[in-house]
Write a structure and sequence with these properties.
2 domains, mainly alpha, 0% strand
Length: 82
């Protein structure tokens, strides 16, 4: 909690590693149910902070399909070796 005011450098470091600040706190554990519930609505802002470029939806979908095809083809090679 208090990422912007008190933990800015830690937040930037986590985002550069592809981690959301919320998940850093979640991994540390020790949250009460009330703390977890109060932190959850802030996820939208943290996700927005992790966006580095804006692309058209068609481009994003094309990238996802291309990546999925590459993974399936790679895994098919593994299955053939069994």
């Amino acid at each position: 909690m208090n990422w912007e005011e008190e933990r800015g450098e830690e937040m930037r470091s986590a985002l550069k590693k592809g981690k959301l600040p919320y998940t850093v706190d979640e991994e540390r554990g020790g949250w009460t149910p009330e703390q977890r519930a109060s932190a959850t609505p802030w996820l939208m802002g943290q996700v927005a902070g992790a966006v580095h470029e804006i692309k058209p939806a068609a481009e994003i979908v094309s990238e996802m399909v291309r990546d999925a095809v590459a993974i399936v083809r790679g895994n098919a090679g593994l299955v053939a070796k069994l």
